[in-house]
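Entry type: protein chain
Record version: 2
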Amino acid sequence: MILPASPGASYRAHKQEIDEAVRRVNESGWYILGPEVEAFEAEFAAYIGVKHCVSVANGTDAIRIAVLAALPFRGAEGITVSMSATATVAALVEADWQPIMVDIDPHEYTLDPAALDSALTAPGMFVTPVHLYGQPARMDAIMKLADERSAIVIEDCAQAHGAVFGGKRVGSFGAAAAFSFYPTKNLGALGDGGAIVTDSDEIAGRARLSRMYGWRERYISETHGGNSRLDELQAAVLRVKLRHLDSDNARRIRIAETYNAAFADLDLTLPPTGGVYHQYTIRHPRRDLLRSRLAERGVSAAVLYPVPIHLQPAYADDPPLSLPVTEAFCRDLLCLPMYPELTDGEVNAVCEAVRECVRELR
């Protein structure tokens, strides 16, 4: 079976370097907030093109802490999309903010600037664009609207490590940005991990206090804080994988180009170009049947995400919010296998299976 993603393949591809990094940490005797974390934070900040990186335990915490650090008061409204992993909205709710979910661009998977224009009704709101599936959101239009309306932008970059928009890496546009290092991400750890990046000394300082009990001096809490720390082992692994991120992303793009060429004449909607293809996501009106037919041919495809957040029981309004573009996308999206370690033979097998199945379903 050709899987949608394979974090084990990423480990095997860099096994010697990762094993050496793990050995180095084990022999150091320093396992929490030590030199590996410090080095990774400096390297990742430089890679994104910002002054600060504050590592945390996971991507959800990264969004929550970034919001609280950028706007250290509660109860206001923030605009984001329903077309995302639940973590985006869950993190905002955990930060005691009221999420306002708006629709996506009908040609992309990301925040529709026209919908944002309508939703930004008061100064002091914040905006969380999601660079979904590795596709950058329209940051030129989003930042222009945010500047005009005195809104604060916190980017959700959990699926877009290394993506570029207008010559800048995602994560370098807003007041702050959140990344996840879940094992299947373009930059994935061997467990959970996350980070906040920012150019703001104040936001970085508040985030560092928030991730460990509000401590600046050990055992003395200056402010309320929790426990959300990236450990030394994960930081060491991420340092290895960061060195390979650009080449891994380039391989993802080459696989996507092969898919695009193979599927150009099929009755499919192909993904937009210009991203780093955390997922390669097609659209087909008989998505579920296509998925089952592919499985019969040894190709496993994923549905990310089957139910938009605004229709999930935990976050649904009564009556339900209507986001027609998001709802249509969720009905027919299908994610094909996409990771750098796919062999050319596996990529060709996916192409052949998709072509056969789509033609059968005409």
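Comment: The two ends are 25 Å apart (CA to CA).
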